[in-house]
Amino acid sequence: MISTSVYVDQEREQVLSYLPMNHEQEWDFYFSNVDGKPGSFYLDMGLKDVAPVNSMPHFFCVSLKMNDPREDGLSSDREYDTLIEIENHLEDGIKDKRDIVYAGRLTFNGMREFYFYTADPLLVEKTISESLVRFPNYACDFEVKDDKEWLYYLDFMYPDPRQVQSILNRRVIDSLEKNGDKLTKPREVNHWIYFRSIEAREKFIEQVKEKGFNIDGVETLNDREFKYQLRISRVDGVRHRDVNQYVLYLWELAGELDGEYDGWETSIEAE
């Protein structure tokens, strides 16, 4: 069985820094609408658990103009390798600096913006400038803002709850594919939801039954705030668009009833 779980990119080196010791990197991406244009965020979601970091109160943005973007303003396959090389050099430049952390990037409107938090903006500017010397064909600008509360990260970069659930859905699907699943076969998908009250759980059951979900079990767990557990299932497709459709429906319905959607799992159907 494959279930919703946290994915941590272990290939990215953990840097000794001013970050709290409990910080665990969790790199992922998602698409969003930015100023009415399509955008793609790639960020360390693990920073949310430690933000704001008081010792790094400055937000530093490197805005790089892409040379060969797609018509919609996102990056093209033709420029992909060069953009990754630039990003790697930026990260290599700061990896030994304790007072700089790379928070992520945004691609939109023909630009790629790299975001850092730091205790020393001048050090970041010097380090980044040195890293970009080998890419003279790219125009870039720097911007520094005071951001003690890390609002650029928490309110702008970080996905909203609905987007987080979509990211979790994709992680499960990625796990299925890595295990040889072609995602072509519909199969039973199991869901867990928790509620503060029995009444809310019953209202939820009433509505999901109309959508063809099976009620597989109810339990009361007295050691948690949302103690009224519900397990449901239905045979469904597991492509990302399909999963988002029914999982986000359940997630939203649970929220309307002051409940918590806790995730889903399904079997691997390798061919």
Description:
The protein is of the alpha+beta class and 271 residues long. The chain has 2 domains: 156 residues, Alpha-Beta Plaits (2-Layer Sandwich), CATH 3.30.70; 106 residues, RraB-like (Alpha-Beta Plaits). The protein has 6 helices and 11 strands. The strands form 2 sheets. It has a 6-stranded antiparallel β-sheet, sandwiched between helices. A 5-stranded antiparallel β-sheet has the order 1-11-8-10-9, covered by helices on one side. 28% of the residues are buried. About 4% of the residues have low confidence. Pfam families: DUF695, RraB. This is TIGR01619 family protein. InterPro entries: DUF695, RraB-like_sf, RraB_dom. It comes from Chryseolinea serpens.
Taking all Cα atoms into account, the compactness measure Rg is 22 Å
Strand order in space, largest sheet = 2-3-5-6-4-7
* CATH topology (level 3) name of the largest domain: Alpha-Beta Plaits
Count the helices. How many?
6
Mean pLDDT: 93
Approximately how much helix is present in the residues? Answer: 25-40%
The succession of helices and strands, N to C, reads: EEEEHEEHEHHEHEEHE
Main beta sheet strand tally, sense and closure: 6 strands, antiparallel
- CATH class placement of the largest domain: Alpha Beta
Distance separating the two termini: 16 Å
CATH architecture assignment of the largest domain: 2-Layer Sandwich
Give the low-pLDDT segments.
Answer: 5-16
The helix-and-strand class reads alpha+beta
Total discrete domains: 2
Number of distinct beta strands:
11
